[in-house]
Specification:
The protein has about 250 residues and is α/β, with parallel strands linked by helices. The chain starts with a strand and ends in a 5-residue tail after the last helix. The chain is built from eleven helices and nine strands. It is about 45% helix and about 10% strand.
Length: about 250
């Protein structure tokens, strides 16, 4: 099969039986949606780099950077990157203008090779959005469109294995997640809510966070869910504190 992907019509080739692992492509491969007698599928709204990750998963069961078992039991890391102690995308408290222009991607020192966390690109530029977003979030949403549950689980597990991500990139990616996942799927949304709560001091200091909340719009549901989650978190903290405090009459 030949696939033309994106606004510029980048060409991909794939075997029909491989594509048919996805319910979405299984329907397309039946023929009624193909270009006449050419076995060509057009995906003008898809991003080539995102589709490339999906296609790599269909052939290899993973996409770059691959998920590897960490040295500690139950821990995971990405190939070509050094594991971080917390295994969470801790946001940069004061991202520089240059970092913002790169979408939060860390640049390596000029005198050193691309090794460690900066060797793996955490973000991908989406022309349809006009901005950089976290790659694994975008892949998760693509897996939702194509009906690939295992890919969704893989992309979800990779969330949090990057470090040095700025607040703006995280918030943009969270809003993208909310816009491209159904309300019935709360797994990735819950990841972002937990991350913001865990790093709440950094987010509270962020002018980006304040501007996004004041703007509302597409982020309205995100911030409402965040409010509910933080209230629940506060209730849990208070209940735990009360259980350790002697009761008085």
């Amino acid at each position: 099969m030949t696939l033309t992907v994106g606004r510029e019509g980048r060409l991909f080739a794939a075997h029909e039986d491989v594509l048919s692992q996805s319910p979405f492509f299984s329907v397309l491969c039946q023929g009624q949606y193909l270009e006449a007698q050419s076995k060509r599928i057009a995906l003008p709204e898809e991003e080539p780099e995102v589709f490339s990750a999906v296609l790599e998963y269909l052939y290899k069961g993973d996409y770059y950077p691959r998920l590897l078992q960490g040295k500690q039991r139950g821990s995971w890391e990405l190939e070509d990157s050094m594991p971080t102690p917390r295994q969470t995308p801790y946001p940069s408290p004061n991202p520089t203008t240059e970092q913002n222009n790169r979408g939060g991607r860390a640049a390596p020192p000029s005198s050193s090779p691309r090794t460690g966390p900066s060797a793996v690109e955490a973000t991908v530029y989406l022309a349809s959005e006009g901005q950089h977003l976290l790659r694994d979030t975008v892949v998760y949403c693509a897996a939702e469109r194509y009906g690939l549950e295992e890919l969704k689980r893989l992309a979800l597990r990779k969330q949090g294995l990057q470090s040095g991500i700025d607040v703006g990139t995280i918030l943009r990616s969270a809003k993208y997640c909310y816009a491209h996942t159904p309300d019935s799927d709360s797994r990735l949304r819950a990841h972002y809510l937990a991350l913001i709560i865990r790093c709440r001091k950094t987010f509270k200091r962020s002018g980006t966070m304040q501007a996004e909340m004041e703007a509302g719009g597409e982020g309205g549901k995100l911030f409402f869910d965040l409010f509910v989650a933080m209230c629940n978190h506060l209730d849990d903290v208070i209940d735990a504190s009360n259980s350790r405090t002697p009761k008085t009459v």
